[in-house]
Design brief:
Elements lengths: L1 H6 L35 E9 L5 E10 L2 E6 L9 E4 L4 E4 L1 E6 L38 H7 L2 E6 L7 E9 L6 H4 L7 E5 L2 H7 L10 H34 L16 H10 L4 E6 L2 H14 L3 E6 L7 H7 L2 E4 L17 H7 L4 E3 L10 H14 L6 H6 L3 H6 L17 E4 L10 E6 L2 E5 L20
Helix pairs in contact: 5-6, 9-10
């Protein structure tokens, strides 16, 4: 039983002085992560089939990583003196897998109430809370995700609330704190939820709104209305301050006092201004369209709908507006709003020119996202859609990187990007393949042949546990 608890993942559960301008504060609430380790010598990956996720595959190919960054990719690359060569005949190399929707660290294993830190279910709007402040870096699920080829993930609050708070993007290297594991330069995300979850949490005993979808929408609109008013107060204050500073010192009266700082409103203003990326848990097509109307009303953009099992019904709208859909390959029917899910969902959106993303929302499913992408791809091919294997790979690499605002750094194998790379034993879309090595910034962070008997400090003494 103890081992079972350790292997269980957690899905979307439902249960100083102020700056002169909070609206201009950075989207991340803490300083960047500690520096990554770097190989002292250049590293050459040679002889594998190299999937760049750019539409080009080299079979065989080579990847050169210098100082943690990809320097060259091709069939033959220049090899600097002293380079370490990793010969990989018969293997396949891809960019690291990226998961847009994880609760690792905030719903860690073992999944018990004492460490259930994903939902601040005390009010329908809790935009002021941050997943980073409830994140446990020793979650045993993290090394297991790494063993599945995942190199980055967005850790989100749960979906009990209309606006649940900020998520943050993690790089899956070991760290002693959320700050140490934060992906360098990644913007925060804002987790919102529509549909059944918030209305059943707060309307369960008819003691607090919302209890209907009407109440959900009223709650979003009220929150963003307050945020616009808050931004206006700070804009007015800044104009006052500028006028005051322009006056000769002898003519200045008392310095204008700033408005009171409100962390909840700061987050929502960050979303309106595009510094915080909006991610919305939303299943039904009509509700996704409704959320886009709300976004238009208040001037923010939805970066990605999550779960989005009916994205195929509005694939033209999502493609035209460049809104991603983070979905599953085949989860459906576990509640009423999930009943119209189809296995061709991601493929249909991709064929329409949209940004399909395969996410996990599961500590278990996260360990095989390559296989989940393969399932969705082959369902699309079976219905006659003109898709490529490279497109399927993009659903778990560059598309999620774009959704998280880190596509300039990771998601493809191109010069200048971080050396976050997976070496697969075989074809990356095959159920028979597994990650043999996972590199972060060009350093081997996981090696199947040398995996430790105890993947985390928390499991020390429990005996060997597989990935």
């Amino acid at each position: 039983m103890r081992m079972l608890l350790l292997l269980l993942g957690a899905g979307c559960a439902t249960a100083g002085s102020a700056p002169s301008s909070p609206a201009a504060a950075p989207a991340t609430s803490a300083a960047g992560p500690m520096d990554s380790p770097r190989n002292a010598k250049p590293l050459l990956l040679r002889g594998a089939t190299v999937w760049t996720a750019t539409g080009k595959t080299h079979a065989p190919g080579e990847v050169l990583i210098v100082d943690g960054r990809i320097q060259e990719v091709g069939e033959r690359v220049s090899v600097p003196p002293g380079a370490v060569v990793m010969d990989l005949p018969g293997r396949h190399v891809t960019p690291g897998i990226i998961d847009t929707h994880s609760h690792l660290g905030v719903y860690p294993a073992p999944h018990i109430e004492a460490v259930s830190d994903g939902n601040e279910a005390t009010a329908p709007v809790t935009a002021e809370v941050e997943a980073a402040h409830g994140f446990w870096p020793l979650d045993p699920g993290i090394p297991r995700a790494l063993a599945g080829g995942v190199t980055a993930m967005q850790v989100l609050p749960g979906s009990a609330n209309l606006i649940g708070g900020r998520g943050f993007t993690v790089k899956l290297r070991p760290g002693r704190s959320a700050r140490a594991m934060r992906f360098p330069g990644a913007p925060d995300g804002l987790k919102m939820a529509c549909g059944e979850n918030p209305k059943r949490v707060y309307g369960r005993d008819r003691k607090a709104p919302p209890m209907t979808r009407m109440g959900n929408v009223a709650g979003y609109r009220a929150a963003f209305s307050r945020a616009r008013e808050y931004r206006d107060r700070w804009d007015f204050y800044r104009r006052q301050l500028q006028d005051w500073e322009k006056k000769p010192v002898a003519e200045r009266k008392e310095r204008p006092p700033p408005p009171d700082r409100n962390l909840q409103m700061e987050t929502l203003v960050g979303a309106i201004e595009g510094r915080i990326l909006v991610h919305v848990h939303c299943y039904r097509a009509d509700e996704m369209l409704l959320m886009l109307e709300i976004a238009d009303e208040f001037g923010f953009r939805v970066r990605s709908f999550h779960h989005a099992v009916e994205a195929y019904k509005i694939r033209d709208h999502l493609a035209r507006r460049e809104v991603g859909a983070s979905t599953w390959a085949d989860w459906w029917g576990f509640k009423l709003e999930a009943f119209d899910g189809i296995q061709e969902n991601a493929a249909l959106l991709a064929a329409a020119g949209g940004r399909s993303i395969i996410h996990s929302d599961s500590g278990i499913g996260m360990q095989r996202l390559n296989q989940e992408a393969a399932k969705a791809y082959y369902k699309g091919r079976a219905m006659g859609l003109d898709l490529t294997e490279d497109e399927a790979l993009r659903w778990v690499t560059i598309n999620p990187a774009w959704a998280l605002g880190i596509d300039k750094s990771v998601g493809t194998l191109e010069p200048g990007k971080m050396g976050d790379v997976v070496v697969w034993s075989g074809h990356p879309l095959s159920v028979y393949s597994h990650a043999e090595k996972v590199l972060l910034d060009g350093v081997v962070a996981y090696d199947l042949s040398a995996r430790p008997a105890t993947p985390s400090d928390f499991e020390t003494g429990l005996g060997e546990v597989g990935p």
